[in-house]
Each structure stands twice: as C-alpha cells, then as structure tokens.
Amino acid sequence: MRLxxxxxxxxxxxxxxxxxxxxxxxxxxDFNYDWKFNLGDTPNAFDxxxxxxxxxxxxxxxxxxxxxxxxxxxxxxSSSGFVPGGIGWYRKSFILTxxxxxxxxxxxFDGVYxxxxxxxxxxxxxxxxxxxxxxxxxxxxxLKYDGTPNVLAVKVDHTxxxxxxxxxGSGIYRNVKLIKTEPLHIAQWGLQITTPKVNSNSAEIQIxxxxxxxxxxxxxxxxxxxxxxxxxxxxxxxxxxxxxxxxANVNITIxxxxxxxxxxxxxxxxxxxxxxxxxxxxxxxxxxxxxTFNFDANTGFSxxxxxxxxxxxxxxxxxxxxxxxxxxxxxEYRMKKLKSIGTNAIRFAHNPHSPELLEVCDEIGxxxxxxxxxxxxxPKAKSKVYLGDNAASKEASKAYPEVFDExxxxxxxxxxxxxxxxxxxxxxxxxxEIEWTYPHYSKTFNEVNPNSSAAGYEYVPxxxxxxxxxxxxxxxxxxxPLTTIAKKLVKWVKEEDTSRPTVCGSVLPSIGMVSGYGTxxxxxGFNYRQADYDIAHKTYPDLKILGSENWGAYSEWKxxxxxxxxxxxFAWTGFAYLGEAxxxxxxxxxxxxxxxxxxxxxxxxxxxxxxxxxxxVYMVTTPVSESEYSxxxxxxxxxxxxxxxxxxxxxxxxxxxxxxxxxxQYEDKESIIVQAYTNCExxxxxxNKKSLGKQKLTTVVENDHILKWLVPYAxxxxxxxxxxxxxxxxxxxxxxxxxxxxxxxxTNKTTIKNDGYDVAVITATLFDANGAxxxxxxxxxxxxxxxxxxxxxxxxxxxxxxxxxxxxxxxTHQGKAILFVQSTKDTGAIKISTKSKTVxxxxxxxxAK
Length: 849
What we know:
Residues 671-727 form the DUF4982 domain. By secondary structure, this protein is α+β, with helices and mostly antiparallel strands.
C-alpha cells in the first residue's frame, strides 16, 4: 500500500509540474558588479566597518596585472610577461531581506589568482591557494537580513609574481555568483550525467544526484523529477524517483538520439526538480551531450564510432589585451577562428580554464583535454630576464608545489565535478612534463643516451627495458615519487569519473614506461617525442599513444597522420600567449596559429592547408639574406636552421616559424624567396601577370609541404594560383605598397547583447591608394567609441608590443590593430571610428539590444 501511495504521489507531481514553473526555488545572482578595489596590502580591510570610500569602483572579472601594464624593471619577470603581481583587496556590500532569511546562501568564485582569503562581515571563510579552481563558501550563518549591508572582503596575495612559467594575471579574474537555495537542495556540482550505451536507435542516460538537507524533518518525503529537453527546450521524456539517503540515481532511455559531434554539436538539457512533501524546493538545469569515443592502441581515436585524427592545439588561459579576465564572447571569437582552420581539439595548458570556454567548446564542437597541473610537489624553474635563464628568486617564484600535498586531491576532484557534464571534455590530464622536476628521470635518460641531450630533443630513442631499468633503479634512493603521486592522482580521478580516460604529457616516455608512470594513465601523451612513436608502439603494442604537445611543424603532423596507432597531435600553440619569453620587450611568444590580436599567422595558414580540404593557397616572402632556405642549380633547395641567438635558449627556434613576411615590398631586383602553402594539386606563381612556373605539391609533400620560388623583386603584383584537375581552385595576391591613404575598420558582429558582457571585435587595417595593405609604415591610430559600449582593450598582435592595452591609442603592426568593444546595460546605437594624424576611417554602426 505504501509503494502504491508513493507512485500516486510521484505521478501527481509529474503531471502538475511544468518546466516554466514560476516558483523560483533556486536563484543564481550575477555578483560581478560594484566591487571596491585597492592594489596594495591593507591589513584591516576584512573588517566590515573598514572605510573603503577612497578605493576604486570596478566590476569583475578583473585582472590588475594587465591593467598595470608591462614594466621593464621592478618586481616583474620574463616568465610571467613583465607585469606586476602584488597584493590586492576587493570588497563588496550587498543587502539581504527577511525573504532571504531561511535560505542557504553561498558565494561562488570561478577563479581568483591567487592565494585568496575570503571574509564575510569580518568572519573568515577560508583560503584557497590555487588560482585556477572554482570554489564556494557557505555564507548563511554569518549574514544580516535586517536591511543593513553585508560586506564580502577578498584578499588576493600574488606577491610571488613569478610563480608560473607563463602569464597568470592577478585578482578576481573570473565570474562571481551569489547562490540562494532552500535548505534541501541539490549539492554544488551534484548532477552527474553519463551516456554509457549509445547507438543510432537509443541512448541510455545515467543520472546521479547528490542532495544536501540542512533541515531534516521527521516526516519528509523527497522526490526528484527529471525532465530531458531537446535543443528547442521541448520536454522529450520525464522520470521521477524517491530519495531516502540524499542520493537519487535514475536511468532514462532516449529514442533516436541526436549525437554531439564536431560537425553537429547537439546539446540536451536536463532539468532536475526537487520536491519536499510535494512542494518544489529546488530546480537545476544542466546541459549535456550524447556521444561515445574510444582510444585504441592500433587504430587511434574514434568519436561516435568514426575514426578520426585529433587535430589539436594547446591553449593558455589568457587572451592578449584583456589578460586573464576573458569574456565568453572573446573565447567564442577565438575558438571559431581555430575551428575555421580545421582544429578539432583543445588542450587546456596546463591548468583548469574558465567554465565559459568549456561552454563555447560544447556549443561549437571542439574536444577538450582538461588538464589539472603543470607542477606537482617539486617546482619547475622560472625565468627572470629571458627564457631559460632560470634566475627567478626562490621567494618570487613560490608556487603551488608548496601546497600540493595538502590541496591536490581537493583541487583535482573539484575540477572533475565542475566540468563533469561538458560533452567536449574527453580526457583528464593529471600533469604536464612532470619528469623535469625529478632529476633521476633526466639523469637516467642521459645515461641511456650518452650522446644526446634530453632537453635538446635530439636523440635516437632507446626503449630497451633491460638496459633502462638498472640505470633508473640506481638513480633513485627508494621509491619513485613521480609514479607514486601519479597513481594517487589517477585513483582520485577514477573516484569521480570512470567514463573518461586519464592522460599525462610525458617528455621522457621511454623512462616512464620502465618506471611505471606510463602505465599509470589510460592514454600516454608524448610531448615533443614523435621520434619515439614507432619504437614505443613496437615495444609496447598495447600502449595508447597521443601527441599531447607537438611543434607546430609539418613533420609533427605527418608523423602522426601516417600512423594509425597515433591518435593525433596537440600543436604548441593555438593562440600567442603572454609570458615564457624575454628579454625585454618580448613579453610573450607568438609561436602560434593566431597572434595575440587574433590575426592568422603564416603557420596558421600553413596548417589550414593540412587540416582542411577546402582549396587554399597562401604565400609569404623572405629576402635570401634572411632566409633559412637557399637555392642553387646544382643542389636545389637546402635548409639550414638558424637557431635562436644568445642569451635566449637556442632550441627555442624549434618552436618558432620561418622568418617570413606577408608582403611584396623590397629593393629592386633583390633576391626573394617565395613560400607557398597549399592543399591544391599544383600552384602557379605570377609576377605582374607573367608566369614564373607551375609546381606540383607532390614534389614537396615528403619534405616540408612548401612550394618555393626564387624571384628577383620588381614593383607590382605577385599572385599565386592553385589548381585542382587543371582548374583554378584558389588564388592569393600580394601588392607593392604605397603610403597610407585609408584606414578601414570592420567588425565581427553588428549587433551585441546589452548584457554588459558581449563583445564585438573591431579590426583596423591600413591601405594605400591602390588597395594594397600597408605593412611597412605603421602609425599610431586612435579609436573612438560612442554610445552603448565601452573599450576594454586594444592590441596589434605583436609579441614586442608593450603599449598599454587599456587605451584608445595603438601603433599598428604590419598594418593592423584591433579593439575589443564590450556592451553596457544600455540599448541603442554604437558608433566606432578610427583616426590618425593624417587619415581617418569609415564609421561602423553597431547596435546594442
């Protein structure tokens, strides 16, 4: 009888509840506006009665490092991009009413860099050292509901300004949310959705729900109802279950599911409604996708049963002019650019990234390797003046390894719980190149390969375990700490998620396979070890191999693409990133497919011809005196790599692209090498309409995939035409340049949402009177923005650009610059124009609505 009454009750709830229920039982409030900020330590600023009237009013996300700008001297370093750290304080006042008194109220920070300490009304809530994780504090027992202000105070301690090998940013640089629930509610990240059985006819959806009950009652019936909605928000199936132990688990089958894929990233929504004695007390909506994937030691990677190569890039968490405080619209802009050249996967290097970036990857169809750590218990060296000097002081470079043993499990599990339901996430990476921090790995490698250098990446791989094992064991005193920690990390991952494989970025895989490190993870990531692929596969035929970090070079792609057993590659990098550079003024590394401003680099054009089938031809030029290529009638084309000159590490050249220029502007009759990138069968070069000959792609595909011509410079037009089956398929033109006579500005969107977050990207380009882009006469330009938008950053894409990004002015680089325009809360017209001392631009008309 009791079961019968329960079923009647569930049916009654199911029939009476709708997805547009007006009884709001959970609210998530945007908590980004109207913070007070002070750069500098203020010891009593946690006190609710502290006077912050003289502090600066700001909104978060906020990155004070990028606002302070690049500095040649002082507490700055090349590793972190020549920007300051320090201590910053944030305070925010807010009022609650009697209506909130019985609520559970918490505050969620999506990312604070770093060593954050939080108080509410003078009461300490806690400290979080990790600057990349999302964390939540319960405020309920410390709040006032009488109409007087509550004060939230946050201290951010980034005095160790070079605690990373790259730019981190400083401050509350991701979103903040105030969450109000009933005492009975779904826990933070308490919904977990998996799709273990999927085919074209049906998909099994497994849902696990964790509940929190802060007000248990003697007579308390808890029921959770689940509605699954399609992409149009129509309910396609519902199911309810009773929870007796604060856990609710159900299986739901969907007929003819629409799968999430790279080409068609279909998304569903799960709505979970919690009822207490038939009264709704919570509602959570979680987006998810249905897909299957598999790694195989012989056939590589497949998604939804279809084999494919991973065409991935590595990506840091900053975005040029906005530093680490990146709006979702900028991530959307960047990810669409990466996808436009054929990229299908992103590796989050080397730490948790923002939830908004994951949302974008879900929405447009990009796979994500989600990575937790760059360092474990031992630190990596940081640079002070230039990359490779390893001269940062111990105090300035204090970093996460100091707290790793205490915080690693919580940080790792919080990452997995937060990102569990994103269909784009297909791997959990436990670490990146950790072997460098344990000297016995490098020592073993160098003894096994006495004529090679592990750091130099030049060696003949040795995978003879009988030779490696005794040397390795002789180099460690007791137990290998790397393998011990790796096993713990993998164990913690599996405690949270068994639906995805674990991976690591290994730089010494031959040693790791002997130590046990390589067999700890499900998929072994090889960083810059494409020379190892064949012997590793032969020696360990069951090993699943992935290029987890690769030079952005043709040889890297070809080596993986020619081998079925290699799942794919992740090239370094998708976008240029701040830090890991120097000497001044080189603030970051443009060794990427797109530069800091989002302009496609020659490398990006080149990889587009490898990764996409759409016909394409592109060309760049270099004077013979500067080129690494040379030509003679007797020997043909030869290549001589020009390694990076001192004091910077000479092997940096392995990451850099050829020295090329996107122009046709040189001295008369100067010998110029023209490089052409194409996926067409053949290409023909024309100078002032005169053919300089056709070349077939098949003549270079085994070498460097680059067609080359040696051309004496002459003013005029250089054009290259690509042909397939003898028919013109694409062309590209470079013209000699005159003086700047026009500035043209364009936008990636003409309408932006008046939500205070949406962004339009404005591009300014210099042209001469004949319509040629002027690359060699850069000028200072000034952007003017009128109406319902604001300037949040300018840039020109150059790695040596140390101008302030928080300005209306910028000197162009190679004839280009960008402006990020962000909406306000207002609606209406937006007018944008650009001018210099002698030239003005067209006016762009945008609208906020």
